[in-house]
Each structure stands twice: as C-alpha cells, then as structure tokens.
UniProtKB/TrEMBL annotation, chains A, B:
Organism (species): Halobacillus kuroshimensis
The name this protein goes by in its record: ROK family protein
Superkingdom of origin organism: Bacteria
Family note: Belongs to the ROK (NagC/XylR) family.
Transmembrane segments: none
Length: 301, 301
C-alpha cells in the first residue's frame, strides 16, 4: 500500500506544506510567507487551510510539523522560539488536530531534517546518523535505528549549547563557549568583523579566503578546529555510523569538508582515526518538509 | 520460564563470574585474582573453567563478558587495555565460544554496569539512562529502550575523552582538557598534590574537606563545576531520563550530589532546570557482573 503523509515546515520566513510518498518524494507542495507580524492563530488557520487542500485527493495517514525550537514534542507545544516572535506556549498540535482526523506530530526543524537525511539522504543505509546543521546557529538530530532520539524533555540534539571552551564567547541564552558560539555562521561573521573589519558575515569571510586572504583563512581554520572538537565529542558519546553536515555554512563545503575530516583525527582515539564518516547533506532545503512528513511514520526514542 | 545467564567481570584485579537470574539476582558467584603477570591464554583457561563449573546444574542461555576497554564488541576482541597489560588484540569471544555451546558476548565494563543499573538499579523504570562512573577515570554507558548504545565502532559512552576545556590538562592518551582530566578521582588527587601538597589522592582531599579545609573544598567545588558541564553537555546531546552516578569518587556522595544538582542548572536551557534527574548508582561493585550477564539478553544499538 502506498503510504502518504503531509509534512509541514513552519519557518520564520516561509510556511511550506507538502504531500510526501513512501519514497520520500514530494508529490504536491504549497508555500506561503509566514506572517510573523500576525497572531499565531492566523498562521495556524492558514496552515489548516493548506492541509485541507492537500488532503483533497490524497489518502493521508498522518501529519507532521517541523518548527523552530524550543518546543515540547511530547505535548505538541511551541514554547517561545526566537525565530517565531509572539509564539509563546502555543498548543500547535491541538490546534491542528482539532481540524483533521489523522494523527498530528510536532518536532523541531533539525530533528525533522535529521530524519529525512537518515531515510532518504546522506544517512540512508546507516544504522545511526547524527545530522548537524551549521547555519546562523548550530542544531542537530540523532537518528538511531530509523527513529529520532528526542530525549526525556525533547532536548536531545541541542548540540549548539554544548560547552567546548568555558572561557569562550557568550551568545544569546547559550552557555559561554558553546559549540554554536564558536563554530556557527554567526561566529564566523563575528570574527570577520573583529579581525578583518568586514560586515558581510560568513559569506564575506569565505569570499576573502577564496581571494587568498590569510587572516580570513585563519578564521575558517579556527572554525574547523571547533567543528572537529564538537564532532569528536559526539563520536565519543554516541559514535554514530555517519555524521551528515547541512545548513548554509556548508555551502562552503569545498573550504571545509576535507580539512575537517583531517582535523577530526587530532581529537579521536587512535582506533577511530579515519573511521568516522562525515558526509554533506543531500536534501538541501527540502529536508525539513520531507522529515516532518516522517514524524508520524516512526516512533521517537 | 526462568532465564539464567552467566556474567563475567574481567577486571585488572579480580576475575568474577556468576549465574544471574531474570530478576538480576546473583545465584552463584566465583571470584579469583586476575593473574595479569601470566599470558592471556592462562587467564582465559581459568575463565573457561569457571564457566564450566557454573554451567553444571544451571540451564544457561548465554554468557556475557565485561572487560576494561578499548575493545571491539562487534568482533569480540580485547584491544590493548591499560588495565590488562599484555592483552594485545585478544579474540576473547572466540576463545570462550570454542568451549561452550551458548552465545558469548563482550562489551566494556562501563557499558555492562550501565545495563545493570538500567535494568535493576537506579535507572529502572526509565525510558533511557546515562550511567557515569567517576573513579580513577571517567567512563559511561548510554541505555535507550533497554538496549546499550554501543555505536558504530563500539566507542559510544567513552565520555572521559569529551573535550571540555581545550587549554586544560593533558592526560594519558586523552584529549587535552578532557572530562576525565578535569573531573575524575585522579584529577582530584592531582589538584590535591598541586594545591595542598598532599599525596593521598581524592580520598585525602575529601577527608580534608570534612575537616573544614577551605582549599580542599575549592578543589571539590571545581570538580563539581566540571561534572556539571559534562552532564549538561550529555543532556543537550541525548537528554536521558536519568543520569546514574557510580564509581569510587561517588563514595563522597554527601559532598557531591546536592551541590552538583544545583550547579547543573547553571549550564542548562532554562526549560530544563530542575528537570534533569541525577541519582546515585545502586548496585555497587556487583553492577559489572550483573550487567555482563545481560549482554546476551538484549540487542545492542
């Protein structure tokens, strides 16, 4: 039997919804701008309208929503995401569930993308995978035996808050010297401003590296060191079969991936050197929608 | 039907073997000194003799061995444990398997203890648990859904090598500023020598704290900070339902546990504060043997 589910990618910029088949293909997709200046109730109504249209003519068995965190996946509540201003403790699953007669699930966007990459992207065929999105921030999702590890309070995969250097920079509500404060796109941009005096963020730093700018190359080199440390920690904690690296910063994959694989060896037990697989994500911006559609297909751990 | 299995705790000091029933009770136990000055083949022969005696009169369905690491649980090989000098790449499972007709399993001692605490100790009834042994070194074991997470190369739970402070002390073959170098019994002893000039290791530092010695209290306070950071990292990575704390250092539980629960809050996302459970281990030195007996009862992840 064909299994079709709806995935919804609720982002701070766009609200996307689509019907996904059992092979991970998006059969139909709808996208509108997320009107974050309106009440959550308004956006939820739009979401319910999109779902209704998509369910017309498709036999849908479940609906999954991926959203920026923090959120409570067990209770289906959005807590207070920086990327969705005004969404304070919103019982999103209840609001959508009231409008449909199939099960509705919620998880954070990184966990959704992790599931998609594990099933249909760079993690497929592996017993376990750890998805890392390196973008404005750093997020993650750990998939084991085809299931997302949510954790007791839903905070598994919140690797951006991992402490790597207690005397390092502070950053929003994260720990001082967190992985995110040391190795995200924002941290590359911050160092670009501090060391090079440029305002163009990570993109400008990468551009300067390609032009042969040495101080810019040192910024990227530091980022690679912190990425290697963070990935080594994850290896010595859960030792996944593969790390899948996504997010906007990985568009500079040609500057990052090969030296990162090398640098990682410096922080691993000798027996693990050259054994740990790092692969670029394959599904790009579709991962969130596809992964959301998978939330109802597998149980979470 | 009664399920009985044999657990073997191969330590650097003692070799223990016992028959464990389905409730986790040890029905019969044998213990001898581990003759580490002899060849591994000699010790394995002793182990096989103990197994033969234990199998007499008991219907045994599997045998599990817990050993110091590093080892390869998938291939059943002991690699080169510092605590078992001379055991270089020993195919232990093959050697024992040749002598019996029930399945033989191998995992490291911390993973075995983690399984035992999850099934019959402080982790029972929880969906997931992370066992941390704080002793000469720091080890760990992550149990999810009743199964030990071994990882792709068997290095899951090797949390002693987690980097917490890259400019921190170096330590055997671990990363500079590793969790073990900052928060183990050995590190407490090292700081005792450096700051107090005492040679009695962690025990003497704890004794001095109880006598009201302020500089000794500061050493313990630093240890609590690093333990809190390490546990916060594990929380933001896998968010287990409970942390189970064992090992020799936890004999000073009265000095550690209450302040550690408090300090942990400093490094957690606000929504997680006072939500993360830290519990002392319950099975003591029996955990290794009981957990080894469980290796064949559940699949590993």
């Amino acid at each position: 039997m064909d299994m079709k589910t709806i995935g919804i990618d609720l982002g701070g910029t766009n609200l996307r919804a689509g019907v996904v088949d059992e092979k991970g293909s998006i059969l139909v997709e709808k996208s509108i701008r997320t009107e974050t200046d309106k009440e959550p109730a308004y956006v939820i109504q739009q979401m319910n309208d999109m779902i209704k249209e998509l369910m017309d003519g498709h036999d849908i068995s479940s609906i999954g929503i991926g959203s920026p965190g923090p959120l409570n996946p067990h209770e289906g509540r959005i807590l207070s995401p920086p990327n969705l201003p005004g969404w304070e403790d919103v019982p999103l699953v209840d609001e959508v569930q009231a409008a449909v007669d199939v099960p509705v699930h919620l998880d954070n966007d990184a966990n959704a993308a992790a599931l998609a990459e594990a099933a249909f992207g760079a993690g497929r065929g592996h017993a376990s995978s750890f998805y890392i999105t390196i973008s404005t921030g750093i997020g993650g999702g750990y998939v084991l035996d085809g299931k997302i590890v949510q954790g007791a309070q839903g905070y598994a995969g919140e690797i951006g808050n991992m402490i790597l250097k207690p005397d390092g920079p502070s950053w929003s509500n994260l720990n001082a010297g967190s992985f995110e404060a040391l190795a995200s796109g924002t941290s590359i941009g911050r160092e670009g401003k501090a060391r090079l005096g440029v305002d163009g963020g990570a993109e400008e730093v990468f551009r300067k590296v390609k032009e042969g700018h040495e101080a810019a190359a040192l910024i990227v080199d530091d980022t690679i060191t912190y990425l290697a440390m963070g990935i080594a920690n994850l290896t010595h904690i859960v030792n996944p079969s593969v790390f899948v690296l996504g997010g906007g910063v990985m568009q500079a994959e040609d500057l990052l991936l090969v030296p990162l694989r090398e640098r990682l060896n410096d922080y691993l037990y000798p027996q693990l050197r050259n054994q740990v697989k790092l692969e670029p994500a394959e599904l790009g911006t579709k991962a969130g929608l596809i992964g959301a559609a998978l939330l109802g297909r597998t149980e979470a751990l």
